[in-house]
Amino acid sequence: xxxxxxxxxxxxxxxxxxxxxxxxxxxxxxxxxxxxxxxxxxxxxxxxxxxxxxxxxxxxxxxxxxxxxxxxxxxxxxxxxxxxxxxxxxxxxxxxxxxxxxxxxxxxxxxxxxxxxxxxxxxxxxxxxxxxxxxxxxxxxxxxxxxxxxxxxxxxxxxxxxxxxxxxxxxxxxxxxxxxxxxxxxxxxxxxxxxxxxxxxxxxxxxxxxxxxxxxxxxxxxxxxxxxxxxxxxxxxxxxxxxxxxxxxxxxxxxxxxxx
Length: 260
Fold this sequence. Notes:
The chain has 260 residues and is an alpha/beta fold. Helix content is 42%, strand content 26%.
C-alpha cells in the first residue's frame, strides 16, 4: 500500500476527521485567507466530502457559485449529499492534472491538503493558473511532515513509524518548494503563513487524534513496520494519553497568491 486509496471506508473516516475542532480551525483559516466575496465563482480542487463548499456558499451568496472537483466518487457522493439543496454548487469528478473547466472562469480557487498527494505538482499549478481570471486568488494548504514533533519513549520506533507514514503521500515536505513553484507557474503576490497544530491530547477533536486510526492502519500494512509493531506503537501512544504524557505538534502551511 503506497498511498491512500480514497474508497468508501477511507472517505467515511475522513468525513469524521473533518468534524474535529482542529479541522474547524483550519477551515476558518483557509476561508479567511481566501476572503470570498458575494457573487464570486470559486473552485475547490480536491473538495473531499464538501465541507468548504457548504461553508463558502454562505459567503458567495445566491449570486455566487461554487464548483467542487475530486477524483474519488465516494468523496463526491458525500459532498453532493452535504451540499444538497444549493443549486449554485456543482460537484464533478476530475483529476487535478486536468480540471475540465473553462479558461479564466473562476475568481478564486482553493486546494487543501491535496497537492502533497499529486505526483506532478507543477502541472496542477499550471491548470490552476489556466482556470483563474487575471488577478484571481489562489489558496493552497499543505503539511510539512518533516516538522512533526511527537513524543515517544521509543524514539527509534517512532522514527520508523513516521517514515512509514510518509509513504501515504507523494511529497512529505511540499511546502518547502511551493513558493518557487507558484512563481514559475505565473502567480505573484505569494504569501505564506505557518500554523502550528499542537496537542497534549489524543482525542478525536484534535488533528492528530482524528488521524491516529488512519496512521495506525496505514503503517500496520507496511512491511517495515507490520501489525505487531504498529499495535505496540499505538498502545504506547494511548498510554501516553492516559497518564497525561502525550505530545504532538506539526506545522501546516497556508499559501496565498494571485494569477499574474
